[in-house]
Amino acid sequence: MLHSNTPIKFKKYREGELSILESELSKMTLRLREQALALTSEKKLLANSMADISHQIRSPLTSSNLILSLLREQNLPVPRRQQLTQELAQLLSRIDWLVESLLKISKMDAGTIPFKRDPILVADLIRHAAEPLLIPMELRSQTLTLDSGDHASAPPQFLGDYSWSTEAVLNILKNCMEHTPAGGSIHVSFSQNTIFTEIVIEDNGPGFDAKDLPHLFERFYKGKNASEQSVGIGLALARMIITRQNGTLKAENRPEGGARFILKFYP
Q1: pLDDT of 75-100, one tens digit each?
Q2: Cα distance between residue 107 and residue 111, in whole Å
Q3: For residue 40, how far is the Cα from the chain centroid?
Q4: Per-residue b/e over 203-238, b at no fewer than 16 CB within 10 Å?
Q5: CA neighbours within 13 Å on the CB side: how many for 147?
Q6: How far apart are CA 159 and CA 246, in angstroms?
Q7: pLDDT tier at 247 (50, 70, 90 boundaries)?
Q8: What are the tens digits of pLDDT across the range 1-34?
Protein backbone atom coordinates (compact mmCIF):
# COMPACT_ATOMS: atom_id res chain seq x y z
CA MET A 1 0.00 0.00 0.00
CA LEU A 2 2.88 2.39 0.81
CA HIS A 3 4.34 1.93 -2.67
CA SER A 4 0.95 2.11 -4.42
CA ASN A 5 1.06 -1.55 -5.35
CA THR A 6 -2.65 -2.20 -5.67
CA PRO A 7 -4.75 -4.23 -5.56
CA ILE A 8 -3.55 -5.99 -2.43
CA LYS A 9 -4.85 -9.50 -1.81
CA PHE A 10 -4.64 -11.38 1.46
CA LYS A 11 -4.89 -15.11 1.85
CA LYS A 12 -8.40 -16.13 2.80
CA TYR A 13 -8.80 -17.94 6.11
CA ARG A 14 -12.01 -19.73 6.93
CA GLU A 15 -12.10 -19.09 10.69
CA GLY A 16 -10.17 -18.04 13.76
CA GLU A 17 -8.09 -14.98 14.62
CA LEU A 18 -6.26 -15.00 11.27
CA SER A 19 -9.61 -14.75 9.48
CA ILE A 20 -10.58 -11.72 11.60
CA LEU A 21 -7.17 -10.12 10.98
CA GLU A 22 -7.43 -10.74 7.23
CA SER A 23 -10.88 -9.12 7.16
CA GLU A 24 -9.72 -6.03 9.07
CA LEU A 25 -6.62 -5.61 6.89
CA SER A 26 -8.76 -5.84 3.76
CA LYS A 27 -11.08 -3.14 5.09
CA MET A 28 -8.15 -0.91 6.00
CA THR A 29 -6.45 -1.19 2.60
CA LEU A 30 -9.76 -0.58 0.84
CA ARG A 31 -10.33 2.58 2.87
CA LEU A 32 -6.78 3.80 2.19
CA ARG A 33 -7.22 3.16 -1.51
CA GLU A 34 -10.47 5.13 -1.53
CA GLN A 35 -8.78 8.04 0.25
CA ALA A 36 -5.92 8.02 -2.24
CA LEU A 37 -8.35 8.12 -5.16
CA ALA A 38 -10.32 10.93 -3.50
CA LEU A 39 -7.15 13.00 -3.06
CA THR A 40 -6.23 12.49 -6.69
CA SER A 41 -9.72 13.56 -7.74
CA GLU A 42 -9.55 16.67 -5.54
CA LYS A 43 -6.19 17.65 -7.07
CA LYS A 44 -7.66 17.39 -10.57
CA LEU A 45 -10.69 19.42 -9.48
CA LEU A 46 -8.46 22.10 -7.99
CA ALA A 47 -6.34 22.27 -11.15
CA ASN A 48 -9.45 22.58 -13.31
CA SER A 49 -10.90 25.25 -11.03
CA MET A 50 -7.71 27.31 -11.18
CA ALA A 51 -7.68 27.02 -14.98
CA ASP A 52 -11.32 28.14 -15.15
CA ILE A 53 -10.70 31.09 -12.81
CA SER A 54 -7.68 32.31 -14.75
CA HIS A 55 -9.54 31.95 -18.04
CA GLN A 56 -12.60 33.87 -16.86
CA ILE A 57 -10.62 36.73 -15.29
CA ARG A 58 -8.06 37.10 -18.09
CA SER A 59 -10.52 38.62 -20.58
CA PRO A 60 -11.80 41.54 -18.45
CA LEU A 61 -8.26 42.18 -17.16
CA THR A 62 -6.97 42.45 -20.73
CA SER A 63 -9.76 44.87 -21.60
CA SER A 64 -9.03 46.92 -18.46
CA ASN A 65 -5.37 47.25 -19.37
CA LEU A 66 -6.32 48.35 -22.88
CA ILE A 67 -8.65 51.03 -21.53
CA LEU A 68 -5.96 52.25 -19.11
CA SER A 69 -3.52 52.66 -21.99
CA LEU A 70 -6.10 54.76 -23.85
CA LEU A 71 -6.78 56.88 -20.76
CA ARG A 72 -3.09 57.78 -20.59
CA GLU A 73 -3.36 59.79 -23.81
CA GLN A 74 -2.90 63.48 -23.08
CA ASN A 75 -5.24 64.91 -25.72
CA LEU A 76 -8.13 62.56 -25.13
CA PRO A 77 -11.50 64.39 -25.45
CA VAL A 78 -13.50 64.65 -22.24
CA PRO A 79 -16.58 62.74 -23.52
CA ARG A 80 -14.34 59.90 -24.70
CA ARG A 81 -12.49 59.87 -21.36
CA GLN A 82 -15.80 59.67 -19.48
CA GLN A 83 -16.97 56.80 -21.68
CA LEU A 84 -13.75 54.85 -21.13
CA THR A 85 -13.90 55.50 -17.39
CA GLN A 86 -17.44 54.13 -17.25
CA GLU A 87 -16.41 51.04 -19.24
CA LEU A 88 -13.45 50.50 -16.89
CA ALA A 89 -15.73 50.74 -13.85
CA GLN A 90 -18.06 48.11 -15.36
CA LEU A 91 -15.12 45.79 -16.07
CA LEU A 92 -13.80 46.14 -12.52
CA SER A 93 -17.27 45.45 -11.14
CA ARG A 94 -17.47 42.35 -13.32
CA ILE A 95 -14.07 41.13 -12.09
CA ASP A 96 -15.17 41.67 -8.49
CA TRP A 97 -18.36 39.66 -9.10
CA LEU A 98 -16.42 36.91 -10.86
CA VAL A 99 -13.91 36.52 -8.04
CA GLU A 100 -16.63 36.54 -5.37
CA SER A 101 -18.75 33.96 -7.22
CA LEU A 102 -15.79 31.69 -7.93
CA LEU A 103 -14.74 31.82 -4.29
CA LYS A 104 -18.25 30.82 -3.24
CA ILE A 105 -18.20 27.86 -5.63
CA SER A 106 -14.74 26.81 -4.41
CA LYS A 107 -15.88 26.93 -0.78
CA MET A 108 -18.89 24.78 -1.61
CA ASP A 109 -16.70 22.29 -3.46
CA ALA A 110 -14.51 22.08 -0.35
CA GLY A 111 -17.56 21.70 1.91
CA THR A 112 -16.45 24.53 4.19
CA ILE A 113 -19.73 26.49 4.17
CA PRO A 114 -22.15 25.65 7.01
CA PHE A 115 -25.78 26.17 5.97
CA LYS A 116 -28.28 27.27 8.59
CA ARG A 117 -31.64 25.58 9.10
CA ASP A 118 -33.93 28.49 9.93
CA PRO A 119 -37.60 28.96 8.98
CA ILE A 120 -37.79 31.09 5.79
CA LEU A 121 -40.99 32.72 4.56
CA VAL A 122 -41.00 32.30 0.77
CA ALA A 123 -42.74 35.62 0.04
CA ASP A 124 -40.14 37.58 2.05
CA LEU A 125 -37.31 35.63 0.40
CA ILE A 126 -38.48 36.44 -3.14
CA ARG A 127 -39.06 40.13 -2.39
CA HIS A 128 -35.63 40.45 -0.81
CA ALA A 129 -33.93 38.61 -3.69
CA ALA A 130 -35.67 40.78 -6.30
CA GLU A 131 -34.68 44.14 -4.74
CA PRO A 132 -31.35 44.55 -6.62
CA LEU A 133 -33.15 43.90 -9.93
CA LEU A 134 -36.07 46.32 -9.57
CA ILE A 135 -34.27 49.30 -11.13
CA PRO A 136 -32.75 47.34 -14.08
CA MET A 137 -36.18 45.80 -14.72
CA GLU A 138 -37.82 49.23 -14.62
CA LEU A 139 -35.31 50.50 -17.19
CA ARG A 140 -36.28 47.54 -19.40
CA SER A 141 -39.99 48.15 -18.79
CA GLN A 142 -40.27 44.64 -17.36
CA THR A 143 -42.76 43.63 -14.70
CA LEU A 144 -42.37 41.20 -11.80
CA THR A 145 -45.50 39.62 -10.32
CA LEU A 146 -45.82 37.40 -7.25
CA ASP A 147 -48.65 34.92 -6.90
CA SER A 148 -48.78 33.44 -3.42
CA GLY A 149 -52.24 31.97 -3.82
CA ASP A 150 -54.52 31.82 -0.79
CA HIS A 151 -52.06 31.13 2.02
CA ALA A 152 -52.99 33.87 4.47
CA SER A 153 -53.40 31.46 7.37
CA ALA A 154 -50.25 29.40 6.69
CA PRO A 155 -47.80 31.21 4.39
CA PRO A 156 -45.38 28.84 2.58
CA GLN A 157 -42.00 28.42 4.22
CA PHE A 158 -39.08 26.00 4.42
CA LEU A 159 -36.00 25.37 6.55
CA GLY A 160 -32.82 26.81 5.07
CA ASP A 161 -30.19 29.52 5.04
CA TYR A 162 -31.78 32.90 4.29
CA SER A 163 -28.67 34.60 2.86
CA TRP A 164 -27.65 31.73 0.60
CA SER A 165 -31.23 31.10 -0.52
CA THR A 166 -31.50 34.78 -1.45
CA GLU A 167 -28.34 34.39 -3.55
CA ALA A 168 -29.81 31.40 -5.40
CA VAL A 169 -33.18 33.04 -6.14
CA LEU A 170 -31.44 36.28 -7.19
CA ASN A 171 -29.31 34.43 -9.74
CA ILE A 172 -32.39 32.74 -11.22
CA LEU A 173 -34.35 36.00 -11.39
CA LYS A 174 -31.35 37.72 -12.96
CA ASN A 175 -31.15 35.02 -15.61
CA CYS A 176 -34.83 35.49 -16.41
CA MET A 177 -34.44 39.27 -16.57
CA GLU A 178 -31.51 39.05 -18.99
CA HIS A 179 -33.41 36.71 -21.33
CA THR A 180 -36.74 38.53 -21.21
CA PRO A 181 -37.30 41.19 -23.88
CA ALA A 182 -38.07 44.82 -23.08
CA GLY A 183 -41.64 45.13 -21.90
CA GLY A 184 -41.70 41.46 -20.89
CA SER A 185 -42.76 39.95 -17.60
CA ILE A 186 -41.48 37.56 -14.92
CA HIS A 187 -43.98 35.64 -12.82
CA VAL A 188 -43.23 33.94 -9.49
CA SER A 189 -45.64 31.58 -7.73
CA PHE A 190 -45.14 29.41 -4.68
CA SER A 191 -46.97 26.84 -2.62
CA GLN A 192 -46.43 24.29 0.14
CA ASN A 193 -47.70 20.79 0.81
CA THR A 194 -46.85 18.04 3.26
CA ILE A 195 -43.91 16.85 1.13
CA PHE A 196 -42.15 19.99 -0.13
CA THR A 197 -42.27 23.76 -0.62
CA GLU A 198 -42.28 24.78 -4.29
CA ILE A 199 -41.25 28.02 -6.01
CA VAL A 200 -41.92 28.46 -9.73
CA ILE A 201 -40.21 31.30 -11.62
CA GLU A 202 -41.34 31.93 -15.21
CA ASP A 203 -40.63 34.46 -17.95
CA ASN A 204 -41.98 35.15 -21.43
CA GLY A 205 -38.63 35.25 -23.17
CA PRO A 206 -37.38 32.92 -25.94
CA GLY A 207 -36.94 29.96 -23.59
CA PHE A 208 -34.14 27.41 -23.79
CA ASP A 209 -32.64 25.76 -26.82
CA ALA A 210 -33.22 22.00 -26.69
CA LYS A 211 -29.47 21.35 -26.82
CA ASP A 212 -28.83 23.65 -23.85
CA LEU A 213 -31.36 22.15 -21.41
CA PRO A 214 -29.14 19.22 -20.23
CA HIS A 215 -26.21 21.58 -19.58
CA LEU A 216 -27.85 24.68 -18.07
CA PHE A 217 -26.51 24.10 -14.57
CA GLU A 218 -22.96 23.16 -15.57
CA ARG A 219 -20.47 25.80 -14.46
CA PHE A 220 -19.06 28.01 -17.23
CA TYR A 221 -21.59 26.67 -19.74
CA LYS A 222 -23.00 29.36 -22.03
CA GLY A 223 -26.18 28.58 -23.90
CA LYS A 224 -27.20 29.58 -27.38
CA ASN A 225 -29.13 32.65 -26.18
CA ALA A 226 -26.55 33.70 -23.57
CA SER A 227 -25.38 37.31 -23.57
CA GLU A 228 -21.78 38.28 -24.25
CA GLN A 229 -21.33 39.20 -20.58
CA SER A 230 -22.50 35.80 -19.36
CA VAL A 231 -19.87 33.44 -17.93
CA GLY A 232 -22.16 30.58 -16.94
CA ILE A 233 -21.77 30.76 -13.16
CA GLY A 234 -25.11 32.04 -11.83
CA LEU A 235 -27.29 28.99 -12.46
CA ALA A 236 -24.54 26.57 -11.44
CA LEU A 237 -24.15 28.41 -8.13
CA ALA A 238 -27.93 28.51 -7.63
CA ARG A 239 -28.25 24.74 -8.02
CA MET A 240 -25.31 24.10 -5.65
CA ILE A 241 -26.93 26.29 -2.98
CA ILE A 242 -30.36 24.69 -3.36
CA THR A 243 -28.98 21.14 -3.42
CA ARG A 244 -26.98 21.74 -0.24
CA GLN A 245 -30.25 22.66 1.47
CA ASN A 246 -32.01 19.41 0.59
CA GLY A 247 -33.68 20.93 -2.45
CA THR A 248 -33.90 20.49 -6.20
CA LEU A 249 -33.75 22.92 -9.13
CA LYS A 250 -35.19 22.10 -12.55
CA ALA A 251 -35.46 24.14 -15.75
CA GLU A 252 -37.86 23.62 -18.65
CA ASN A 253 -39.61 25.45 -21.48
CA ARG A 254 -43.18 26.66 -21.02
CA PRO A 255 -45.68 25.29 -23.56
CA GLU A 256 -46.80 28.86 -24.32
CA GLY A 257 -43.20 30.07 -24.67
CA GLY A 258 -40.58 31.25 -22.22
CA ALA A 259 -38.52 29.63 -19.48
CA ARG A 260 -39.61 28.02 -16.24
CA PHE A 261 -37.51 27.25 -13.15
CA ILE A 262 -38.95 24.92 -10.50
CA LEU A 263 -37.43 24.97 -7.01
CA LYS A 264 -38.43 22.41 -4.41
CA PHE A 265 -37.28 22.36 -0.78
CA TYR A 266 -37.83 19.24 1.28
CA PRO A 267 -37.94 19.01 5.10
Answers
A1: 889 899 899 999 888 888 878 877 88
A2: 6
A3: 25
A4: bbbebbeeebeeebbebebebeebeeebbbbbbbbb
A5: 8
A6: 9
A7: very high
A8: 666 666 666 666 667 777 788 888 888 888 888 8
